[in-house]
Design brief:
The complex is a heterodimer of chains A (179) and B (101).
Chain A (H helix, E strand, L loop, with lengths): L1 H23 L5 H21 L3 H25 L15 H21 L13 H9 L4 H22 L4 H12 L1
Chain B lengths: L2 H21 L3 H25 L6 H31 L13
The chains are: A mainly alpha (179), B mainly alpha (101).
Chain lengths: 179, 101
């Protein structure tokens, strides 16, 4: 009974995740596209909850809510049509992109059903969150250290790039001065 | 629920994102496509952890890395868009072909 409920929940969430993902590139409002992407992330968070990854599932839900809200703000700042009042399309090479992505899906789907996947080794721990915590504070600590340095480098790089006197800005000044 | 079902979902999310990354003119929309692709990788990594090697935490660590990559990609993407927008008032890929050979 529990298995059936989980299977139904999986397929409903999967259809919603893919449907919302498609909606991102179909709706004619940038704000709606952002919230469609958020819906897709929330469904994936739900999928992770189904396979006992409670911490990572909730992490995705909380993190993506914040990330997509930030993205919505940037959308409103940059895009000409944040409210979706004027239908518009901003695509190039639509047919080529459809062919490549469709071909990639066909190849991946064929691989999913033809590759002999290995047998399951071991059983899920009683608390996967504890296992993850022990891994990243023990044998996988190098991964976490690299992630930490990458986050620091990103913080510095984003400030340098987007600061008023950034690379592009100085280049423009130089160009104007030369003229 | 099976490993194949989860991987099929991951492939679908990845390919929808690939379509967006290839077809969108707006850099911000292109970033949404990239985020969807990483989203597919998150699903695949979680499925591999659960159905292939649940005893080790490797799959969970990979999910953690993928989530971090999503956040870093968005931060760097917006920094680049901001730099471009300041310099030239553009936010489309077609107007940002500086590195084209």
């Amino acid at each position: 009974m529990r298995g059936t409920v989980e299977a139904v929940a999986f397929w409903v969430l999967a259809a919603a995740a893919v449907g919302a993902g498609v909606a991102v590139f179909v709706v004619d409002s940038m704000a709606r596209a952002t919230f469609a992407l958020l819906a897709s992330f929330l469904c994936v968070g739900g999928e992770l909850l189904l396979i006992d990854l409670h911490y990572l599932g909730v992490l995705i839900v909380l993190m993506m809510i914040m990330e997509m809200l930030v993205m919505a703000v940037f959308m409103v700042m940059y895009m000409m049509n944040p409210a979706g009042l004027m239908p518009m399309t901003m695509l190039h090479n639509r047919r080529g992109a459809l062919a490549i992505s469709g071909g990639a899906f066909a190849a991946l789907a064929a691989g999913v059903f033809t590759v002999p996947w290995p047998e399951r080794e071991g059983r899920p721990p009683r608390d996967p969150t504890v296992a993850l915590g022990e891994a990243i504070m023990g044998p996988k600590m190098l991964v976490m250290m690299v992630i930490g340095v990458a986050i620091l480098a990103t913080m510095i790089a984003t400030v340098v790039l987007s600061a008023h006197r950034g690379r592009y800005d100085r280049d423009r000044d130089g160009g104007e001065a030369a003229r | 629920m099976t490993l194949e079902a989860f991987l099929l979902l991951a492939a679908a999310l990845f390919c929808v994102g690939l379509f967006g990354a290839l077809s969108q003119q707006s850099i911000v929309m292109l970033m949404m496509g990239l985020e969807l692709m990483v989203n597919g990788i998150v699903v695949a990594a979680a499925a591999f952890w659960f159905w292939v090697s649940p005893g080790a935490a490797d799959g969970q660590v990979l999910v953690l890395v993928a989530i971090t990559v999503m956040a870093l990609e968005m931060a760097m993407g917006f920094a680049v868009v901001t730099a471009l927008f300041r310099a030239r008032d553009v936010d489309t890929t077609d107007d940002a072909g500086d590195l084209r050979g």
